[in-house]
């Protein structure tokens, strides 16, 4: 079969607008009304309504509980007297104070926060300026090691690690990352 010469498939032609609306009207007019279903629905609604009307108010005629005649002749018994409590701890706990020994928190060595270590002093001073823009004061400490001279940018000392963490979070909110908290003594 020659696929190139077979041609395009033909679509059915659409009827004109006026013809389309007439076709819909004709199809609606031809459908028979299901009178059997309509009559059945009306009968069910009527039966349900009759049922609701017939049970209206019958709940008041029947009492909720039926008491036997033997129970009506007996006199009601009195409840026994409430017993006294045997437990003494309730009054003892109301007036008791608890003493707890809390040891003092050991602070430990002061904390320092290092935010960078650079070969060039200009790089260290640039980071120090960024930290100053946040509102914190940093110091630059030069240190000599096996690999040459380094310039460390350090904040602190802090008495507690919590104070150092607070300032580190402040730096992180201003996009200065990489600060580490150490137990250092720079003396």
Automatic annotation (TrEMBL):
MF terms in GO: peptidoglycan binding
Domain named SPOR: residues: 105-184
Bias (Low complexity) ranges: 64-78
Keyword Transmembrane: yes
GO biological process, one term: cell division
Organismal lineage: Bacteria, Pseudomonadati, Pseudomonadota, Gammaproteobacteria, Alteromonadales
Region named Disordered: 1-25, 63-82
PROSITE patterns assigned to the protein according to its UniProt record, in alphabetical order: SPOR (PS51724)
Name under which the protein is recorded: Cell division protein FtsN
Keywords: Cell cycle, Cell division, Membrane, Transmembrane, Transmembrane helix
Organism: Idiomarina tyrosinivorans
Biased composition (Basic residues): 8-23
Transmembrane segments: 33-53
């Amino acid at each position: 079969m020659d696929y190139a010469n077979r041609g395009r498939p033909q679509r059915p032609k659409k009827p004109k607008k006026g013809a389309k609306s007439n076709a819909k009207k004709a199809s609606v007019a031809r459908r028979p009304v299901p009178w059997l279903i309509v009559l059945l629905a009306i009968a069910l609604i009527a039966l349900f309504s009759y049922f609701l009307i017939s049970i209206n108010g019958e709940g008041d005629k029947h009492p909720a509980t039926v008491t036997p005649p033997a129970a009506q002749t007996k006199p009601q018994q009195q409840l026994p007297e409430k017993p006294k409590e045997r437990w003494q701890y309730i009054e003892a706990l109301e007036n008791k104070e608890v003493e707890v020994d809390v040891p003092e928190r050991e602070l430990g060595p002061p904390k320092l926060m290092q935010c960078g270590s650079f070969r060039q002093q200009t790089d260290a001073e640039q980071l120090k300026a960024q930290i100053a823009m946040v509102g914190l004061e940093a110091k630059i400490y030069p240190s000599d090691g096996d690999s040459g001279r380094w310039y460390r940018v350090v904040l602190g000392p802090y008495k507690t690690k919590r104070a150092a963490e607070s300032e580190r979070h402040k730096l992180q909110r201003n996009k200065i990352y990489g600060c580490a908290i150490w137990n250092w003594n720079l003396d």
